[in-house]
Amino acid sequence: MRKEDCFYLGKVVSKYSFKGEVLVKLDTDEPEIYENMESVFVSLGNNLVPFFIDRCRLHKSNLLRIDFEEVKDEPTADKLIGAELYLPLTLLPPLSGNKFYFHEVIGFTMMDEVHGDIGVIKAINDSASQELFEVDKNGKELLVPISDEIITKVDRKTKTIHVNTPEGLVDLYLNS
User: Fold this and answer.
1) Domain that includes residue 152, residue range
2) Between 20 and 30 A from 144 (CA), which of 29, 80, 130, 165?
3) Using CA atoms in the order 46, 50, 56, 58, what is the torsion angle rounded to 10 degrees?
4) Structurally, how many domains does the chain consist of?
């Protein structure tokens, strides 16, 4: 399995017990749908390694307590701390309307109500407090906030996201 064919589920943040259980901080709005998993891919080095699960359950809000079949002691669990977990993209529930997965909109055209075609989405920047579309328009990069107030329509058929950007935002990038 390749990372490109998977989505990031979360990261092992600590051990939970002396029996090798670990706590995973999930990157999801719906942690409860991952309570009954049978396996995950763990990123070890440059490889995704399948790990089978004996038992997993929610622990507090968005932490998942996992008991892996292959991990039954603290030293083995220690080696997993900081490891990222992945699942195949095929397991993502389909979204509709204006909801979307970040990976799904890469390559979509962005249409602004005032300026028309303002470029192609090249990436999503989610490292700051405000998530941003990184849009390329003839070699110029535009940063457009990802916000329900700005996104007016996600059209999967035409691979287009329609937006109503704040006044002056597009001009700031294209007229500089």
Assistant:
1) 100-173
2) 29
3) 30
4) 2
Please indicate, yes or no, if residue 95 is contained in any of the structural domains: no
- Using CA atoms, how far apart are residues 21 and 72, in angstroms rounded to an integer? 7
Q: What is the Cα–Cα distance from 161 to 1, expressed in whole angstroms? A: 30
Domain containing residue 27: CATH number = 2.40.30.60
- Which residues have CB under 8 Å from 99's CB, separation 6+? 154
What is the distance between the alpha carbons of residues 168 and 156, in angstroms, rounded to a whole number? 27
pTM above 0.90, yes or no: no
- Angle made by CA atoms 9, 135, 27, in degrees to the nearest 5: 15
Residue 93 forms part of a structural domain: no
CA distances from 13 to 34, 126, 134, 145, 161 (A): 17, 20, 30, 29, 35
Residue 53 lies in a domain: yes
**Which CATH number does the domain housing residue 106 bear?**
2.30.30.240
43 within domain boundaries: yes
Q: How confident is the model at residue 1 (pLDDT cuts 50, 70, 90)?
A: confident
- Least confident segment among 34-48, 85-99, 133-147: 85-99
3-class SS of residue 102: helix
Distances in Å between the Cα of 111 and the Cα atoms of 121, 126, 141 are 11, 21, 15
* pLDDT tens, residue by residue, 26-59: 988 788 889 889 999 999 988 999 999 999 999 8
